[in-house]
Amino acid sequence: CNKSFYQKTHLDIHIRAHAGDKPFPCKAPRCGQSFSHLNNLKLHERRHNEERL
After folding, report:
1. Nearest-10 Cα torsion for 6, 38, 47, 19
2. What percent of the chain has pLDDT above 90?
3. pTM
4. Is residue 17 in some structural domain?
5. How many independent structural domains does the chain possess?
6. For a tag on the chain, would you pick the N or C end, based on fewer CB atoms within 10 A?
7. Taking every pair of C-alpha atoms in the chain, what is the biggest distance, in angstroms?
8. What is the pLDDT of residue 45?
9. Domain that holds residue 33
10. Which of 20, 19, 51, 25 is nearest to 38 (CA)?
11. Residue 6 lies in a domain
């Protein structure tokens, strides 16, 4: 891939997409999902919080 980035963090996120890395696991019991973006994990965690209400 020949994409270029001004910020290293953007490059890191892009590399995770190619590698399939998902370094942000959900800590909810019996969930088991992991995410490549922290924001996606935070969105997902909100769903768990809504289930508890």
Report:
1. 90
2. 79
3. 0.73
4. no
5. 1
6. C
7. 46
8. 96
9. 24-53
10. 25
11. no
Cα–Cα distance, 33 to 53 (Å, whole number): 21
Cα–Cα distance for residue pair 36/14, rounded to 1 Å: 10
pLDDT at 51 over 80: no
Is residue 10 a part of any domain in this protein?
no
Q: Is residue 12 part of a domain?
A: no
34 forms beta bridges with: 25
| Residue 21: pLDDT band with limits 50, 70, 90 | very high
- Dist CA 37 CA 43 (whole Å): 10
Q: Which helix (H) or strand (E) holds 35?
A: strand 34-35
CB-count burial class (<10 Å; 0-12, 13-18, 19+) for 6:
exposed
Helices (H), the chain: 8-19, 38-52
Q: Are 13 and 36 in contact (CB under 8 A)?
A: yes
